[in-house]
Fold this sequence. Notes:
Layout: H1 9-34, E1 40-41, E2 57-60, E3 63-65, E4 75-85, E5 88-98, E6 103-114, E7 118-128, E8 133-144, E9 147-157, E10 162-165, E11 169-172, E12 177-180, E13 182-186, E14 191-201, E15 205-215, E16 220-223, E17 227-231, E18 234-238, E19 241-244, E20 249-252, E21 256-260, E22 264-268, E23 270-274, E24 279-290, E25 295-305, E26 310-321, E27 328-340, E28 345-358, E29 361-371, E30 376-380, E31 384-387, E32 390-394, E33 396-402, E34 405-411, E35 415-422, E36 425-431, E37 433-439, E38 442-456, E39 467-481, E40 484-491, E41 495-500, H2 533-540
Antiparallel strand pairs: 1-3, 2-4, 3-4, 4-5, 5-6, 6-7, 7-8, 8-9, 9-10, 9-11, 10-13, 11-12, 12-14, 13-14, 14-15, 15-16, 15-17, 16-19, 17-18, 18-21, 19-20, 20-23, 21-22, 22-24, 23-24, 24-25, 25-26, 26-27, 27-28, 28-29, 29-30, 29-31, 30-33, 31-32, 32-35, 33-34, 34-37, 35-36, 36-38, 37-38, ...
Amino acid sequence: xxxxxxxNKPFNKRHKALNGALCLLAxxxxxxxxxxxxxxxxxxxxxxxxxxxDKVFLEYADSLIMDEKISPDYQILLGNVxxxxxxxxxxxxxxxxxxxxxxxxxxxxxxxxxxxxLFVFADQLFYNGNxxxxxxxxxxxxxxxxxxxxxxxxxxxxxxNIGFYFEGGRIFDEENELTSAYGQYAPDTKDVDxxxxxxxxNEQYDLYTDTLRYNTETKIADIVGYTEILSDxxxxxxxxxxxxxxxxxxxxxxxxxxxxxDGQTLTGDTIYYDRGTGYGEVFGNMVLTDTAKxxxxxxxxxxxxxxxxxxxxxxxxLAMEFSQKDTxxxxxxxxxxxxxxxxxxxxxxxxxxxxxxRSDVQGICDSLSFMERDSMMYMHxxxxxxxxxxxxxxxxxxxxxxxxxxxxxxLPEYGMLVEHVAxxxxxxxxxxxxxxxxxGKSIRQLDVSGNVMSIMLPMxxxxxxxxxxxxxxxxxxxxxxGQQMEKLNMWPDVTGKxxxxxLTKRSQIYLKDFKWHDDIRPKDKDDIYEVPDAMRELLSAxxxxxxxxxxxxxxxxx
Length: 558
C-alpha cells in the first residue's frame, strides 16, 4: 500500500495549474494552425550564396504550394515570382519549381533581365539551370540596346549567350527590319545570323537572300549566299561581300552584278559601291554594259557613277559598239565616258595608242573622242583608217554618224587616200582638205580641195593596168561604185602626165608622204591590244604638213 504524502499539496496544485495553462496554450496554437490550409506555406528564402553559377535560386514568391499527391516533383509558386541564376533575373506570375532538378517552368508575364541592357519577354519559359538553356514560347520579345526581336519560339543558351528562333521571327534596329524563318542572335557580339527566306527592309532598298549575317551595332550585313538588293535606282546581285546599311557602302566579290534602272549593268571581280554617290569602283575584269546605247566598256580596273552617268576603264580597256550587225572593238590605254554640260549629252574619250577593229573598217590614232551632241567622232594625231583595200591618213579625221552608221569622214587639215591596186602599185590622192561620203561599208564619193595631187592606175577594159597617171589641180571629185572607181573629175587648171607602166621610175609611183601602213593595221578583235613599235613611232612623229610638191624627190643627186 502506497501512502500519500500530503505535505506538498500546495506545490501539486501549482503544478496542475501550470499544466493546465500549457495545455490551453497548446490548444490555442493548434487551433490557429488547424485554421490554415495544410498545403499553403510562406516560402522561406535560404541564405546561400546567390551567385553560384550552376544553381537556380528562388528569390521571391507571394506563396508556395506543396502537395505530394498533386505535384510530388515540383513546388507551385504564385504571385510576383522571381528567380536568379548568376546575374540573370527571371520573373513571372506563376511557376513550377523543380528544386532538386535545378529547373523551373514559368507562366504569364515572363521576363528575363540581365543588367540594364538585355530584356526578354514571353508568355512561357522553360529553364534548365544545369544546361542553362531557356526555352521561351509565345509572344517572345527580346530587347538588347537598340535591337528588338519578335518571335513565338525562342531558345536562349546562357552558356554561349546566344539566342535563336526557328519558326520565324523579326528583328528591328534604327536602320533596318529583318525577317527570316531561322535566326540567331549573340548579345556579346551583336551578330545576327539568319537563314531561309531572309528579308532586310531599309527605307532605300530591300534585301532578299537565304543566308545573311548582320551586326546590329555596326549595321553591316555580310553577304554569304546568293543575294538580291532591290532599290529604285538599281538591283544588286551578289553571293559574297558586305553591305554597310548605315553608310550605304558595300564591297562585293565573286563577280557581283549591279543593274541600273536604265538598263546599265556593272560587274567585276570586286566592286566597291557607294549608294549615296552612285559610285561603283571595280577591281578586276570590269564589264559595263549599256544596252540602250549598244555599248560595252571593259577593263582590268574602272569605275562607273550612275548619278553622273560617267565611266572610266583602263588596263586593257575596251569599248564595244554593237548597234550594227558587226561589233566595233576599240582599245586604248584609257577610255572615259561622261556627260557634257550644259546640255548633258554624252561624250567618250579614248587615249593613248588607240586601235579599233570591225570587219569592214579598222583604225589607229593617238587619241579619239566621240561627241553625242553632233554625232561626231574625232581621231587625233596621225590617225589611219582602213576600209578593205583603202587607207586614209591625215592629222585629224572627223567621222559623222547617222543612227550609229558612219556616213561622212572629214579631214580638215590634210588628207591622203591610198588604195592598193597590185604588187607595188597604189592609187593615191592627197590634198589640204578631204571629205569622204560613205555608203554602208564603202566610200561612194571623195571630195579633195587645195593642192590636190594624185597618182592613179586606171583599169583598162580587159581589167588590166598598163599606164600611170600623175595629175595635180585645185579640186577633185571621185565617185565609186563599190570598190571600183566610176568617175574622176579634177579642176580647174590640171597638170600632169601619163606614163606607160614599163617606163615608170620608182620615184613616179608614190606621192611624197606615201606610206602603206599594213604592218600596223589591226587584224582582228584580239589584235587591237597589241601596239606595234611601228605604230608608236608613227604616233610620236611630227604631224604631216599639207603637200607642196606633186611627187617625192628622186634620190639625192637626181
